[in-house]
Amino acid sequence: MKITLEVASRNGDGIVLRLIAFNDSPKPVDLDRRLLVGPSGVVDGAESWPVSLEPPTKDSQQNIIRLNPRCFYGREREFTVTETTTFHGYLAAKANGFLPEGPANAKHLVQAAAPLRIQASG
Predict the structure, then answer these.
(1) If residue 112 lies in a helix (H) or strand (E), which one and from where to where?
(2) Burial (Cβ within 10 Å: 0-12, 13-18, ≥19) of residue 48
(3) Which among 14, 30, 48, 82 could disulfide-bond with 100, CB atoms 3.0 to 4.6 Å apart, if both were Cys?
(4) Region 29-35 average pLDDT
(5) pLDDT band at residue 48 using 50, 70 and 90 as cut-offs
(6) Percent of the chain, pLDDT > 70?
(7) Alpha-carbon distance 52 to 87, whole Å?
(8) DSSP, res 95
């Protein structure tokens, strides 16, 4: 599984980021969408923003997405960036202790996107 974080569009301080989980293996992979975390921003020298997550469904099986080889799943989020902000995204193994930069327990990190540092437009 490959996790990427990219700029989808930007207009001044408004920015749309895209977090993608890509199945780069030759076999189907089941992805729990509740464990894909981000994009989540951290402003230099300030408290981090809340992590971006998807809400769980009532039927837990609906949280699982089968990704066939060379297929992807992701989300876009829009932010206003007025200070230098570093965005993070990752896939966790367990739903426990989600922090912007990664899970509280580093052993629960499956894969992380390279951090994306965004400057304010001004």
Answers:
(1) strand 109-112
(2) middle
(3) 48
(4) 95
(5) confident
(6) 99
(7) 11
(8) S
CA distance 31 to 70: 14
Location of structure tokens 């989980």: 21
Cα 121–chain centre separation: 23
Looking up tokens 């837990």 gives 60
Please report, for residues 26, 59, 60, 68, 90, the alpha-carbon distance to residue 114 in angstroms, rounded to integers and kept in the order given. Answer: 23, 32, 29, 23, 9
pLDDT, residue 121, reads: 81
CA 48 from centre of chain = 14
Give the pair of three-digit tokens for residue 87: 């965005």
Token code pair at residue 15: 């920015």
At residue 110, does pLDDT exceed 90? Answer: yes
Mean pLDDT of 114-118: 97
